[in-house]
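Final report, results section. Input specification for complex C-07:
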Amino acid sequence: MSDVNTTTASDSGSSATLTRLEQEGEIAADYLEGLLDIADLDGDIDMDVEGERASVSIIGDTSTRELTKLVGRDGEVLEALQELTRLAVHRETGERSRLMLDIAGFRARKRAELAQLGAEAAAEAKETGQPVKLDPMTPFERKVVHDAVAAAGLRSESEGEEPQRRVVVLPA
Amino acid sequence: MLEEALEHLVKGIVDNPDDVQVDMRTLRRGSVLEVRVHPDDLGKVIGRNGRTARALRTVVGALGGRGIRVDLVDVDQVR
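Structure output:
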């Protein structure tokens, strides 16, 4: 009896999480859509749930160039908008959001570049038998690199303090 | 457009959206976007270490408001 209850509780727990993340995406989409309308920018909003996070992307139809001003240099504007969007979600749900925002494929491209960097660093560590230290990165960037190194069959760790924290790829 | 965009961004993150008012003022030394919020929401629009205020300024800058100041004003504040 108690076993059955536990199972039910955890099942409904995970679907409740999914519902909550979908709701986060919808609140975020409303907030961003409002901004696009006011600023007269064209863009479609795509919502998804990736792992434990809601993920929202603004995709340009034809004139992606217009949208890139919402990305900014090094994604500076994108980070600011993500921050504000998370706050808008928090206002509605009362819970802190870890929502990921992407605009015009900026993060997707960045992720591909970092994955390649991780694979190259892993190859170098294998070849030289020496640890390979990478440049300081944000938590998001390090996560992508760690995943790429793991996919190449090596281990990696992070060292140093933010914002100077960096990935070190360990030789096998 | 900038006033409207900033008003939308602020309204979405405060507890008292009806008390949000944004005005563009043109001063001798340039333009200022003045944001008025409920006193209880002032901390919210400033954020930890001014993080939220900085995010608002960054987005306004990207929308064409580069060089325009964004001031946060408590509604109780007498000018």
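The radius of gyration of chain B is 12 Å. Chain B has one domain: 1-73. This concludes the modelling results for the funded period.
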